[in-house]
Amino acid sequence: MEFETGFTSAPDGSVLTRFGRTMVLCTCRVVPGVPRFRAEGSGWMTAEYCMTPGSTNDRFQRERRGAKGRTMEIERLIGRSLRACVDLAGFGDHTVHVDCEVLQADGGTRTASISGAFVALALAADSMIERGLITRSPFKGTLGAVSCGIIDGVPVLDLPYEEDARAEIDLNLVLLDGSAIVEVQATGEEGVMSRAELDALLELGTAGVRSLAVVQHEALGAGACARLGLQALA
To answer: Which of 8, 109, 117, 144 is the most exposed place for a label (fewest CB within 10 A)?
Structure first.
């Protein structure tokens, strides 16, 4: 796992996220104003996700007329997850646009996007504090996401494509501060799962998210974490 911050200079927050061979460019741009369905000063956040044509072995067809199917599902997951880790009012009269572009896909692109988007969002919020655009941290805690599954009866964390394609059970886990569940997506790809299998995957995924938080905090740096009130997980 690696988060290369400042990968591009134009956005308010930018990070190249690497989970094995999966690479996602996560950027964050803050603009004045909020949508009409939000009260003035209440803040808002939205997310977009896409896979670039060269991200897969066979050329991925770019979606030119808006998100469809799987893409829309992932965009909503990213947006819900990010909004769960902040107090939107902390952004004041601003809208935050988060963009996740998959440069190389090898499994777990949605969870890598969420984890990297959190870092990009934190960088943008820290920049807003330093520029005097907001007066307090909007964060409730550290957001992380991992994929896991069961292969040949064995729980496995962070599946690459060749494992994901033959997993009997697939699970995506999003946690706040390594404990509070934001979202669980679990599917018995080859049938059904037992409660014991679900519990084993939740335990494995939780350990993975907590390890991930250490890497996220290192990427942000001690100063930014202090300004944003992001504490190391006990």
So the answer is: 8
172 dihedral zone (left: phi>0; alpha: psi -120 to 50; beta): beta
Phi, psi of 15 (to 5 degrees): -150, 135
Give the three-class secondary structure for 190.
coil
Residues 6+ apart with CB under 8 A from 67: 48, 49, 50, 75
User: Tokens 């927050």 label which residue?
Assistant: 13
Phi, psi of 151 (to 5 degrees): -125, 125
Residue 204 neighbours by CB under 8 Å, 6+ apart:
148, 155, 156, 157
Determine whether 99 is exposed, middle or buried from the number of CB atoms within 10 Å of its CB (0-12, 13-18, 19+): buried
Would you list the DSSP string of 99-160?
A: EEEEEE-SS-HHHHHHHHHHHHHHHHHHHHHHTTS-SS--BSS-EEEEEEEEETTEEEES--
> How much is the pTM?
0.94
Token digits of residue 65: 């007329």
- Digit-by-digit pLDDT tens for the chain (234 residues) are 999 999 999 999 999 999 999 999 999 999 999 999 999 889 999 999 998 887 877 777 777 666 668 899 999 999 999 999 999 999 999 999 999 999 999 989 999 999 999 999 999 999 999 999 999 999 999 999 999 999 999 999 999 999 988 899 999 999 999 999 999 999 887 778 899 999 999 999 999 999 999 999 999 999 999 999 999 987
- Structural contact between residues 179 and 231, judged by C-beta atoms closer than 8 angstroms: no
Put the strands of the sheet holding 2-5 in their side by side order. 2-5, 13-19, 22-32, 94-104, 44-51
